[in-house]
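User: Fold this; tokens only.

Assistant: Input:
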Amino acid sequence: MTGVNQAFERLISLAIKREEEAYEFYTEASEKSDFKSSAKLLHSLATQEVGHKHKLQAALKEGVCDTFTCETGAEVEEMDLSKYLLDIPLDPSSGPQDVLIVAMKREEAAYNFYKALSELTGSVSHRTVFESLAEEEKGHKTQLQNMYDDHFQQDM
């Protein structure tokens, strides 16, 4: 396995881990939600994150790491794609507003990561997978933003 392949395998593995964390994050948030509609949306997002994890695992099995157009591991590192996969911590005492803000930041970061991967793969089928993941994450952010606006912006 080349340095490029290893670098991308690490990134995809980290993305899988972040999808697992997103599932746990949304599941916990849905259980703590005071609003039935919010709990339903958060549970739905948790379920979708599991689907994202499965898509990434399938892409790994299909050899997606062989399809990226970078020449060297150093070139991959220079792009600093892992910056999109940073864990954004949430304080245990965080309230619902903080949870939504962190969730929106996580979704935006995931969108940027998948969008970047879609532009780097030479495989049409994998490009479609990453573009699909990017659009789903963008949709999640929009849903969370709407929830945020409904619950926290009505006084403005």
